Amino acid sequence: MQIDLAGKTALVTGSTQGIGAAIAAGLARAGARVAVSGRGADSVDAALERLRGQVPDGDFLAAPGDIATDEGTRQVLDALPRADILVNNLGIFGARPALEISDEEWRRYFEVNVLTAVRLTRAYLGGMTERSWGRVQYIASDSAIAIPAEMIHYGVSKTSLLAVSRGFAKAAAGSGVTVNSVLAGPTHTPGVEEFVYGLMDSSLPWDEAQRAFMREHRPQSLLQRLIEPEEIANMVVYLSSPLASATTGAAIRVDGGLIDSIVP
Ligand SMILES: NC(=O)c1ccc[n+]([C@@H]2O[C@H](COP(=O)([O-])OP(=O)(O)OC[C@H]3O[C@@H](n4cnc5c(N)ncnc54)[C@H](OP(=O)(O)O)[C@@H]3O)[C@@H](O)[C@H]2O)c1
Question: Would you say the pTM of this structure is higher than 0.90?
Answer without folding.
Answer: yes
